[in-house]
Structures are given as structure tokens and as C-alpha cells.
């Protein structure tokens, strides 16, 4: 009996995950980033499952074109805003993701990005390598300390809690957070549940780690940016669309906030002529929040196991309830 067919949407999946899949499937690898839409639609037809990541748009046209054989999408990511979940539900396709696995390493990236932005590391490094290290002013390249500050976390899920735990060692004065309801873990860390408007008004450092959906799109908008302290530092490790980027650029140009650290932006990759690229008080990373070798390998293996679970008609390690 022939094995069911599986399409892997990228060529860089760790061998450990691919070997697991090949035991149960006829695996075909097609780099969606390099392929045309026509080629993708042709290749997806008749497949049992698709192994993908946030770089790949899984829309209704693709799901419908795959046909009745398509039973599962496994995304190697926490978020799944690149997947049309309404179409998934419509066609009875299950969706697996890798929630919780990357929380710790994303929190590590967040703290690193926060420190680099607040303490002006990239700006100082640029001055050093371009011969600008000549200042005698004792306040030259002084940034802001996290100690004794008010830190606000927008969205206090698994990643937000991990960030809060790490911030605890910095002796901050107050931790604020937003959530649908009070989080016992955050409360035990001294966190205070507040509204998003209270958070942006009171925080010295604002970290955006909420899930992107219709309710949270542009949750950091022009009005809320205007409420921030003039020395506020904003960090986003969620999704680019959580922030009104045009309003953010305007505020930075007018020096209405002190700095921004972004691991995510709109669009991705960010065009080289985007104003954010030229601003000294902006630290940009190319969406590498979960980019540790150990984490990415574990995410790939869990994605493979999620897909295999559907073949076995059993529970996934982590399934999105559609």
C-alpha cells in the first residue's frame, strides 16, 4: 500500500524531522518562497498534509485546490495568522502548531532587544566603528537602566510570563500587563493587570507580545503612541501588524518617544529604503525571536509529530481548536 503524500514548504527543515516524516509519508519538498503560485497549487493537489512556517501563506485557494485528501496543516510556529483558519474549518482540515516550545528563547531575545535598545548598544557600536568615539561629555551614549523602571507587557501569555520572570531579576519598580483576565503567574511576580491605555501611559518600557488577530491589529496605534512617555522605549516581538508603523515612524521622527526595538515589522523583509532603517534610535532584528538551533529543531520535530498524529487519528502534541 503506497504511503500518503506530504508537502514540505521549505528546504531547511532539520533532518531529524524529515526522517520521522519519511517513515510514514512520501515526502516532497518545495520551497514556497522560490516557487510560483501556480506551481504550489499544482504540487499541493492530492497531498495528505503540508508542513509550513509563517513565511508561507496557506489560503483558501490552496486548501481547496489540495482536495479532499488534505487532512492536516502543520505549522512550525506559535502564531498561525498566515493560515486561513476559516477555510481550514470549512474543509475539515486540522491545524497543528508549536505553542510553548519557543517561549523561553523568544523571551531571551526580548530581553536582549530591550537592553540593546534602552542602552543604545547598536548606536554606540556604530559610533565606535566609524570613528565617532571622541566624546568627552559624561552623558555621551547614556541610555536608560531597566532597574527601578515601570515595564508593561502587552499580552501576558506563555511568552509574556517568561519575559516577566526574567525581568524580575532586574529589580524593576512595577510590572504592568494586559490580558483577558488576571494571570496568577503574573500576579505572583508582582504584576498588575491594567488596560492597554493605562499601560502605555504609565510604562517606561513597553513590550508587545500579544497574539495578532482582528482585535489586536494596530493595538499600538497613533492615539496610544501619543500617550507614551517621552522617554519610553517600545519593543515588539509579536507581529508587525500589532503596531501602526506609520504612526510609529512619525513619533520617532518628532522625538516623541526615545527608542524602538523590533524583531517584527511590516512588511517582512523590511525594504531597505524604509525610514526605520536609517534611524539611530531604532534596533531592528530580522524576525529571529525563536532562532536557536535547539528550539528550531524541537519545533520541527513537534510539527512532524503533529502531522503524524493526524495520520494515526490521535491527538496532536499541540492542536489549534478551529
Summed up, what is this model?
The chain has 322 residues and is α/β, with parallel strands linked by helices. 34% of the residues lie in helices and 15% in strands.
Structure characterization notes:
The strands form 2 sheets. Strands 8-7-6-9-10-11-12 form a 7-stranded parallel beta sheet, with helices on both faces. It has a 6-stranded mixed beta sheet with strand order 2-1-3-4-5-13. With 322 residues, the chain is of the alpha/beta class. The longest helix is centred in the last third of the chain and has 19 residues, at 293-311. The chain is elongated and about 75 Å long. It has 2 domains: 5-97 and 293-320, 3-Layer(aba) Sandwich (Rossmann fold), CATH 3.40.50.720; 102-284, Rossmann fold. Helix content is 34%, strand content 15%. Helix 3 (60-66) links the parallel strand 3 and strand 4. The model has no long low-confidence stretch (mean pLDDT 96). Helix 1 (15-22) packs parallel to helix 12, helix 2 (37-44) runs parallel beside helix 3 (60-66) and helix 5 (103-118) crosses helix 7 (158-167). One of its GO terms (molecular function) is NAD binding.
Question: What is the ordering of alpha helices and beta strands?
Answer: EHEHEHEHEHHEHEHEHEHEHEEHE
Portion of residues in helices?
A: 25-40%
Distance between the termini: 32 Å
Look at the structure and give the mean pLDDT. Answer: 96
Class of the largest domain, according to the CATH hierarchy? Alpha Beta
What is the fold named in CATH at topology level of the largest domain? Rossmann fold
Strand order of the largest sheet: 8-7-6-9-10-11-12
Number of discrete helical segments: 12
- Specify the CATH homologous superfamily of the largest domain: NAD(P)-binding Rossmann-like Domain
The gross shape turns out to be elongated
Count the E strands: 13
Please give the CATH architecture of the largest domain: 3-Layer(aba) Sandwich
Number of domains: 2
- Low-confidence segments, given as residue ranges, are none
Rg value: 22 Å
Q: Tell me the major beta sheet.
A: 7 strands, parallel
Q: Proportion of β residues?
A: 15-25%
Amino acid at each position: 500500500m503506497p504511503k500518503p503524500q506530504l508537502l514540505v514548504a521549505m528546504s531547511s527543515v532539520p533532518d531529524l524531522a524529515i526522517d520521522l516524516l519519511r517513515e510514514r509519508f512520501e515526502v516532497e519538498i518545495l520551497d514556497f518562497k522560490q516557487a510560483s503560485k501556480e506551481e504550489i497549487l499544482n504540487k499541493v493537489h492530492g497531498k495528505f498534509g503540508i508542513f509550513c512556517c509563517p513565511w508561507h501563506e496557506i489560503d483558501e485557494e490552496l486548501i481547496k485546490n489540495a482536495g479532499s485528501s488534505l487532512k492536516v496543516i502543520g505549522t512550525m510556529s506559535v502564531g498561525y495568522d498566515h493560515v486561513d483558519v476559516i477555510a481550514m474549518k470549512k474543509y475539515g482540515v486540522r491545524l497543528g502548531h508549536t505553542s510553548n516550545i519557543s517561549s523561553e528563547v523568544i523571551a531571551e531575545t526580548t530581553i536582549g532587544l530591550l537592553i540593546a535598545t534602552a542602552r543604545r548598544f547598536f548606536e554606540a557600536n556604530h559610533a565606535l566603528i566609524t570613528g565617532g568615539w571622541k566624546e568627552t561629555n559624561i552623558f555621551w551614549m547614556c541610555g536608560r537602566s531597566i532597574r527601578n523602571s515601570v515595564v508593561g507587557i502587552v499580552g501576558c501569555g506563555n511568552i509574556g510570563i517568561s519575559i516577566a520572570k526574567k525581568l524580575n531579576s532586574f529589580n524593576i519598580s512595577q510590572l504592568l500587563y494586559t490580558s483577558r483576565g488576571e494571570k496568577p503567574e503574573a500576579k505572583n511576580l508582582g504584576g498588575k493587570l491594567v488596560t492597554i491605555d493605562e499601560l502605555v501611559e504609565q510604562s517606561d518600557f513597553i513590550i508587545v507580545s500579544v497574539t495578532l488577530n482582528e482585535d489586536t491589529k494596530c493595538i499600538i496605534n497613533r492615539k496610544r503612541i501619543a500617550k507614551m512617555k517621552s522617554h519610553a522605549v517600545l519593543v515588539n516581538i509579536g507581529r508587525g501588524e500589532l503596531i501602526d508603523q506609520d504612526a510609529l515612524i512619525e513619533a520617532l521622527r518628532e522625538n516623541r518617544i526615545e527608542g524602538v526595538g523590533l524583531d517584527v515589522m511590516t512588511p517582512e523583509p523590511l525594504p531597505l529604503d524604509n525610514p526605520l532603517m536609517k534611524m539611530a534610535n531604532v534596533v531592528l532584528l530580522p524576525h529571529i525571536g525563536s532562532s536557536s538551533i535547539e528550539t528550531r529543531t524541537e519545533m520541527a520535530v513537534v510539527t512532524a509529530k503533529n502531522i503524524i498524529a493526524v495520520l494515526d487519528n490521535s491527538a496532536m502534541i499541540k492542536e489549534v481548536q478551529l
